[in-house]
């Protein structure tokens, strides 16, 4: 049974990683893989409790899925009302090198509030108004991918992997920000400092004003509405960590509350301003435009990992890694590199299943208490995992949702990215890990 499960999982992953070659959405293979893994496990284990295990795994997975649906709907609502147009109009630079720095810093912090994929879509589409040369746009787009992935690593709501770790109390919001903000920033500054020297310090072309997006048209007519929805939407996303801290309820309850308030607000706005004939400004209309294929992909992949966990495969892998390396930096460094080949979501989900959060009793009973102490809530292992899984995905363009999005919008070749960007991303990756190591030495000094 174990061999069959591994073969299905590896084959499924190869098909998922080949999405850009096969031109078949990766959610297709994730859902097939999920169903087959649970079917084989049910048939092979002969355990009558499989159904209860499946229900428990589905409950844990749906917490994340519901959160994503709420967050993606809020982001789509902001765009529908032209909120992001406000951001576009605020970006100014005298030359292209300064523009790269501005866009990188902006993407870094924006992705900590939104997600790296949404941030990349916004920024890359914005580049089309700023740069005419497609080779320059490729370089700028790739730098934005690096910044967006790094920006999502230090925020509890910045990336699906940080959301997963935060929701399950492996990390807390304040400690995550305090410990990973500087390393994540370093992982961006290093490659951008080099990439900015690859372009001439020439002036930026005039903005292209021929943008016919519905939200931009609304922005021209009702600018105050765009500002209101932008502030309320971003405020609703930022409210989620506060809600969790105060109530100790799961984050998906906070995002549902924020979405409900925005739903009420937009219903009143559409009715008062009579916008039905101009935009689809109700949440019931906007929700049709969120990327459900991404939602289904996460559902399939997380349930697939849960099947491997129930079969005992992940526990055995954790033991092998501990016995072979027994070093948090090496283990997470490997995970980060793997996340550039396969999606970081199942890698983090697997680690969460392989390594439980340590408590005082587990530390006292461990053969190596100092090593086990790295696995406590907000321990070094979990901060390293968060950073490596997020930033490591930038090593290849197919290693993150942000990279795949940029690749699709700008038609960036895989080999071009590998030759010109991978080594920059690796320098940033190593620099960030080194910064975490230095921080740990200072804290323990």
Characterization of the model:
This protein has 445 residues and is mostly helical. It has 24 helices and no strands. The protein has helices at residues 2-17, 19-22, 26-45, 50-80, 83-88, 96-113, 116-127, 134-153, 160-167, 173-195, 214-221, 223-247, 251-273, 283-286, 292-310, 313-324, 328-338, 344-354, 360-365, 369-372, 380-391, 401-410, 414-420, 422-444. The longest helix is centred in the first third of the chain and has 31 residues, at 50-80. The model has no long low-confidence stretch (mean pLDDT 83).
The end-to-end distance, rounded to whole angstroms, is 49 Å
| Number of H- or I-type helical stretches | 24
| Secondary-structure content class | mainly alpha
Mean pLDDT: 83
Percent helix range = over 70%
Order of helices and strands: HHHHHHHHHHHHHHHHHHHHHHHH
Largest sheet: none
List low-confidence stretches.
none
Shape: globular
Count of extended strands: 0
**Any idea what the radius of gyration is?**
22 Å
β-strand percent reads under 5%
Produce the secondary structure layout:
Blueprint: H1 2-17, H2 19-22, H3 26-45, H4 50-80, H5 83-88, H6 96-113, H7 116-127, H8 134-153, H9 160-167, H10 173-195, H11 214-221, H12 223-247, H13 251-273, H14 283-286, H15 292-310, H16 313-324, H17 328-338, H18 344-354, H19 360-365, H20 369-372, H21 380-391, H22 401-410, H23 414-420, H24 422-444
Helix pairs in contact: 1-3, 3-15, 4-12, 4-13, 4-15, 6-7, 6-8, 6-10, 7-8, 7-22, 8-10, 8-21, 8-22, 9-18, 10-24, 11-12, 12-13, 15-18, 16-18, 17-21, 18-21, 21-24
Task: Spell out the key features of this protein.
445 residues, mainly alpha, 24 helices
């Amino acid at each position: 049974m174990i061999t069959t499960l591994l073969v299905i999982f590896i084959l499924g992953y190869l098909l998922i990683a080949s999405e850009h070659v096969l031109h078949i959405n990766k959610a297709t293979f994730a859902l097939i893989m999920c169903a087959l893994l649970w079917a084989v496990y049910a048939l092979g284990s002969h355990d009558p409790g499989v159904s209860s295990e499946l229900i428990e795994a589905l409950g844990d997975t749906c917490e994340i899925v519901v959160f994503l649906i709420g967050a993606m709907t809020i982001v789509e609502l902001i765009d529908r009302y032209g909120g992001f147009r406000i951001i576009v109009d605020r970006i100014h630079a005298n030359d292209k090198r300064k523009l790269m720095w501005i866009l990188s810093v902006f993407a870094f912090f924006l992705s900590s509030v939104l997600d790296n994929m949404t941030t990349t879509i916004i920024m890359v589409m914005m580049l089309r108004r700023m740069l005419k040369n497609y080779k320059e746009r490729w370089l700028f787009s790739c730098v934005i991918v690096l910044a967006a992935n790094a920006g999502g690593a230090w925020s509890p709501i910045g990336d699906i992997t940080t959301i997963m770790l935060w929701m399950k109390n492996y990390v807390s919001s304040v400690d995550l920000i305090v410990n990973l903000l500087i390393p994540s920033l370093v992982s961006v500054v290093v490659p951008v400092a080099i990439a900015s020297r690859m372009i001439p310090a020439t002036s930026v072309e005039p903005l292209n004003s021929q943008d016919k997006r519905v939200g931009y048209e609304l922005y021209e007519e009702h600018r105050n509405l765009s500002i209101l929805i932008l502030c309320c939407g971003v405020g609703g996303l930022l409210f989620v960590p506060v809600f969790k801290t105060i109530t100790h309820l799961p984050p998906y309850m906070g995002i549902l509350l924020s979405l409900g308030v925005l739903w009420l607000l937009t219903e009143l706005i559409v009715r008062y301003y009579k916008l039905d004939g101009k935009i689809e400004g109700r949440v019931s209309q906007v929700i049709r435009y969120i990327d459900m294929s991404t939602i289904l992909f996460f559902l399939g992949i997380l349930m697939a990992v849960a099947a491997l966990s129930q079969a005992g495969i992940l526990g055995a892998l954790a033991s092998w890694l501990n016995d072979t390396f027994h070093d948090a930096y090496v283990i997470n460094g490997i995970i980060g590199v793997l996340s550039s080949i396969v999606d970081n979501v199942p890698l983090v989900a697997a680690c969460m299943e392989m390594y439980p959060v340590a408590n005082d009793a587990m530390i006292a009973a461990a053969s190596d208490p100092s090593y086990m102490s790295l696995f406590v809530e907000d321990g070094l292992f979990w901060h390293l995992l968060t950073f490596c899984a997020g930033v490591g995905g930038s090593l290849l363009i197919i290693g993150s949702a942000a990279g795949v999005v940029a690749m699709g919008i700008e038609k960036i070749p895989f080999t071009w990215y590998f030759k010109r960007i991978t080594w920059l991303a690796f320098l940033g990756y190593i620099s960030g890990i080194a910064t975490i190591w230095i921080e740990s030495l200072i804290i323990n000094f």
